[in-house]
Specification:
mainly alpha, 0% strand
Length: 396
């Protein structure tokens, strides 16, 4: 019996998200209500197909045997698929509540590319595999679901925070350079992951997963390809820096108020933070049951703590110091950068129990280097914000 019905629904969801992404970008460019409605309908249709794909995969795992059956979050394919599902779920709630479709242009590309990447990567297994003994626990359900819902809320906050900085852009000031650099990095990573997917589909590279990610661009074995990639990155940054004010004017047409963006950014973090907290706590309980220790300073644990501290600092600064506006949005962007490293960077650069396919728990010393580097950059930026702030807690 073939257990691949879930993959068929997976591809329906992937192409639906592709269509939604294109329509959201078109809506942002042309401000056509029909295009916006089509984008929303495709998002809803893709989400239903995605939900069916996850449900069928869960059902198929139990059809293979009661000892094999598990919630579909156990390997890279399943976890990235579930992560994309949670991002779309949170996004749909935000769009429905605020009746603003322009957010989709900043969120749906992430969901589509996550599915496209795991769909075409030749070395990412799509098979349903038995769980290792340590994962056979009900704590898996609580820990993974709450963690990914928290990550999804932070992803939406990241997109909204970028929008805030764009809408409030003042030509060639510090914040202008910051958001153009952030948006340029995001676009470049999206293009690089797309290049990976195309290269894998055409058979030009053998593997684009794990340590081979971005092997078709920034980490290519070809010096020429690497040079072109970095030149393209510089070109994207230069283009955004030169045309950023036009993007601001385009977003302003949608009556996207600063107060609304600031509110959405805050509320999504206020939702995501307790979810991440529950995820960390349940992970510690699970670790104690599986390995006999609540906390072992595994790289994933360390970076989860860093992420938690960044968002704790965001909430503390907002509630006690009145941080809003550009400063709060910038901290949200830093937080999501930490989320990305926690989920993908750890698997690419560090070793540990959470890396997919890992068996050992020795902590890589690189984690300490990244910890101090991240703390130094964050501290420097907060200091700059403090030195250059002019309006207390008011939006800048």
């Amino acid at each position: 019996m073939s257990f691949d019905m879930n993959i068929k629904f997976f591809w329906v969801a992937t192409f639906s998200y592709l269509g939604a992404m294109v329509f959201y970008l078109a809506y942002l460019a042309f401000r056509n209500n029909g295009v916006g409605k089509a984008a929303t309908l495709l998002t809803y249709f893709g989400f239903v197909a995605h939900t069916v794909a996850l449900g069928v995969r869960w059902w198929e795992s139990y059809k293979m045997g009661s000892d094999i059956g598990h919630i579909p979050v156990s390997n890279l394919f399943e976890s990235m698929s579930f992560g994309a599902w949670t991002i779309v779920l949170i996004y749909m709630a935000v769009e429905w509540n605020y009746k603003n479709k322009s957010f989709g242009a900043f969120v749906m590309p992430v969901a589509f590319l996550a599915l496209a990447y795991i769909g075409v990567a030749p070395n990412i297994s799509k098979d349903i595999e038995p769980l290792v003994p340590a994962l056979k626990s009900y704590w898996l359900h609580i820990h993974v679901i709450t963690s990914f819902l928290g990550y999804a809320a932070f992803a939406v906050s990241f997109g909204v925070s970028l929008m805030y900085m764009i809408v409030n852009a003042k030509e060639k000031d510090t914040a202008y350079g910051f958001w153009t650099a952030c948006l340029g990095a995001l676009i470049s990573i999206i293009l690089a992951v797309s290049a990976d997917a195309v290269a894998a589909y055409m058979g030009l590279v053998a593997d684009i997963s794990g340590k081979h990610m971005l092997s078709a661009s920034f980490r290519s074995s070809s010096t020429a390809v690497m040079a072109v990639s970095y030149l393209a990155y510089a070109g994207v940054l230069g283009f955004l820096y030169a045309t950023g004010m036009k993007l601001r004017d385009s977003l302003a047409r949608y009556q996207t108020s600063s107060d609304m963006l600031d509110e959405v950014g805050y509320k999504t973090i206020a939702i995501g933070f307790p979810l991440l907290t529950v995820g960390i706590i349940t992970g510690a309980v699970w670790a104690n049951a599986a390995w006999g220790t609540y906390w072992g300073w595994d790289p994933k644990e360390t970076w989860s703590l860093i992420t938690w501290l960044v968002y704790a600092a965001y909430l503390h600064a907002r509630l006690t110091r009145g941080w809003r506006g550009v400063r709060a949005a910038s901290l949200s962007v830093f937080g999501f950068a930490s989320v990305i490293f926690t989920y993908l960077g750890v698997n690419l650069l560090l070793s540990g129990l959470h890396a997919y396919g890992a068996t050992g728990g020795e902590v890589d010393k690189t984690a300490i280097t990244f910890l101090f580097a991240f703390a130094a950059v964050l501290a420097a930026y907060i200091f700059i914000c403090k030195m250059t702030s002019k309006g207390g807690g008011k939006p800048e």
